[in-house]
Amino acid sequence: MRHLRNAHAAHVHGSSAYDLTLPQVLAAWQDQSDRPVIGRLAERNGLILGTASVDHLPDAQSRTAGVMVRVHAEHRRQGTGTRLLREAEAIAAALGRAVLQSWTEHRHSGGAGLPASTGFGAAPRDATAMFARRRGFRLEQVYRQSTLDLRCTAFHTDALCARARTRAGDDYRYLFWLSPTPAALAPALADLKSRMATDAPSGNVDVEDGEWDAERIARIEAHDAVGGVRRLIGAVRHEPSGVLVALNELNVSPADPTIAHQNDTLVRAEHRGRRLGTWVECATLARLRELFPQVTHVETYNAEENRPMLVINEAIGFTPVSCAGEWQKRLS
């Protein structure tokens, strides 16, 4: 399963920077506290042709399930993907899940793309997108993958950081730590991350994220440690209330230590308009340069309709390189 996943990532991104190690994959399958996963393999004479997985929240009231199907490049267009998807759909239906969701990644290509239902962005009409569409999935969102060259942006981002800090005012303070998250900060971080499900643009996707608490933070960071991943966390605290109101996360993986991956970036809705997003992102980039000087590039994904975040990233210097799709299919 790891081999197929990494081969697809290498095809999309042109490098091994997005590889997962075997310990990382194994750790995720062994600890299914947050999202149980059911997997299937398609094989012939001992050769793995494809894989499928169905992940879901353990909450009996949940209606959604995540579905991922991958087929070896040399064995496509032989019905393997269709059979795996049918099996995944049967598993989801047996679990009582009526909404299937999937994530796809795509290299940029010429020609007219397949537009998202949000009206923002389009995915290439490649084999992956056409397979999903023919099987009844609808492209709900398109995400832009962008990259930043750290080697030529330090002066610029430091200047942006200083201006944003001034605009924020004295009621706000920047905090930074490397995982594992200190126990005193874990509940506040969990509360802030729970806002990703409600405050980030989601189009017509049925968002179900489960409960965030200190224990979930610890489990995620334990998975990181198994794979040698280092997570950098920057946050802004509103001093009068003591509440964390902005977040920026980066991680550095041993798969390619020259690239940092930017994950969640969020500002609570009630604290927007003060350039906290620019501040928390630029300040964390400064810590990245200081602590991980081997990192030369940062990559991130943003929904195409998330213009406030894209404006910040464009101002910092991020440039588009590829895209991803968020798909959904209703079984009933």
TrEMBL record:
Domain N-acetyltransferase: 1-159
Source organism: Microbacterium laevaniformans
EC top class named in words: transferase
Cross-referenced SUPFAM superfamilies: Acyl-CoA N-acyltransferases (Nat) (SSF55729)
EC number(s) on file: 2.3.1.189
One MF term in the entry's GO annotations: mycothiol synthase activity
Entry's transmembrane regions: none
Superkingdom of this protein's organism: Bacteria
Pfam families, sorted: Acetyltransf_1
Protein name according to UniProt: Mycothiol acetyltransferase
Keyword terms: Acyltransferase, Transferase
